[in-house]
User: Fold this.
Amino acid sequence: MHFLTWGKKRESYYHLQLEKTHMKQKVEYYVHNLNSSDISSCVKVLRSLFLSTGNEVEKFEKAFAHYLSMNYVVGTTSCTDSLFLCLKGLGVKKDDEVITSPLSFVASAHSIVRCGAKPVFVDVEESTANIDVSKIESKITKNTKVLVVVHMNGYMCDMKRIHTIAKKHKLKVIEDAAHCVEGMRDGVRPGHLSDAACFSFYAVKNITSAEGGAVATNSKKLYEWLMKARQHGMSKNAINRYKKFDHYDVDILGYKANMNNVQASLLLGQLERIEKLHRKKEKIARKYDEAFENNPNISLFINKKNMKHARHLYAVKVDSKKRDYVLSYLQSHDIGIAVHFKPIHMLTYYRQKYGYKRGDFPIAEKVGSSVISLPFYPKLRNDQTTYVISTLVKALN
Ligand SMILES: *Cc1c(COP(=O)(O)O)cnc(C)c1O
Assistant:
């Protein structure tokens, strides 16, 4: 009995001590926004007849196209497969060259390699982490077919300038908009000027179905190809045959990347709330910005006035010699962190296949070795943001 009391007291004493330096609970790197109505919509689909591609997917495609002000959306299984299908649909084949950014998730380059084409990297700008548009033209050859640009962190690339170059050299443009559902720059949104924009609904993206993706395009031809190619090239899918049986044919070597009704049911509600969720992230970003703006140990990416930042990631740059120490400091203080990204040309596969080495894309390497992505999601509470700020500042002192 005595012991128990003593034990309890000691426990609560430790608890107090813990609170002084740590939050009671870990500040997770990401927490999704699925609510009870999203879960009910999903359960409704699970209790229904059609689990795979059907009415829910069609509803989501229409709603997403409307949200983006685009003609067509095709629901897929991932942004990776969306990029790959678009490259295939635009005719990219063996020995073609595709220009892209070395500072992205490996998916943007992998999808090019999967087509048998060569990813040609153009270094990034330090101020945005986006492809340096002024360096694109020097990398264009007679084999260049497509530009794949990435809107890093949600900060849109200068699509008007990119399209001036693309037009001049008759190149297609695909946007890796995995970070940029809500973005806009100079009145232009993802997909508006390009052949296609590809989106991700992976677990930590702004809206999520655990896994999932989409392509937005204004090209009827590409849309029709994608609708077929995402499902083996079949001219009719199961829901068409259910409504009225008809034999299907296959006239191309298609793939398997169709979004299903379970995924779509989770996305529809989030899409309705997306601007509200974005406003919450905007507020958190402002709080981080104000806290770090005048800190000599922290530098921020720029955010111009003519932009609607999609606010996917909140990344800061610190001295690259201290970066990994800061990562472990934050993690040991119960703060989830991530790095976006280790440059693609520094990954073993790309080094071995193409002989890349340190120094080939110095700005991407510099940014890649100094960035830290902080916890950033609508459910992040004010006290948690304050704790992240004070812990990061302490780690750098
Ligand atoms: C997440 C991400 C992808 C891949 O998305 P998936 O849906 O997981 O395939 C591609 N590009 C970038 C920039 C990403 O952040």
